[in-house]
């Protein structure tokens, strides 16, 4: 089931990982909106396979797709996941321009974010806007 927590504009960008949650959202939103799919390739085998799935789907449904890829190595002392997340969101912000970007999270993502931040002393939920967390 897809639940929209706010009214979305008719023209928007959808961050698509190739997983079931973002693919379902892309399918749902593209039925009655003008969407641009944004996919970020992290340079792993899985990411290349996911890009292939996203490309094939977007080609089949005639959805515009913009693909970004990781251009640098993970800096020393930074976790790979944190570096990937920051790189991915930087790409989304650059490519979306003035469009709203829809990201998709399932319950495991929300729980993971809350647990990770809680263990580090500042429990937060996934933000509705990048940089603004719900406490």
Tell me about this structure.
- This protein has 135 residues and is of the alpha/beta class.
- It is 43% helix and 22% strand.
- The protein is built from four helices and six strands.
- The strands form two sheets. The chain has a four-stranded parallel sheet, sandwiched between helices. Strands 5-6 form a two-stranded antiparallel sheet.
- Strand 1 (11-15), helix 1 and strand 2 (34-41) form a beta-alpha-beta unit.
- The two termini are 25 Å apart.
- The model has no long low-confidence stretch (mean pLDDT 81).
TL;DR?
With 135 residues, the chain is an alpha/beta fold. It has helices at residues 20-30, 45-61, 80-96, 107-119; strands at residues 11-15, 34-41, 64-69, 100-102, 125-129, 132-134. The strands form two sheets. The protein has a four-stranded parallel beta sheet, sandwiched between helices. It has a two-stranded antiparallel sheet with strand order 5-6.
Strand order of the largest sheet: 3-2-1-4
Computed Rg:
15 Å
Strand content: 15-25%
Query: What is the count of DSSP helices, taking H or I runs of 4+ residues?
Result: 4
Largest sheet, described in full? Answer: 4 strands, parallel
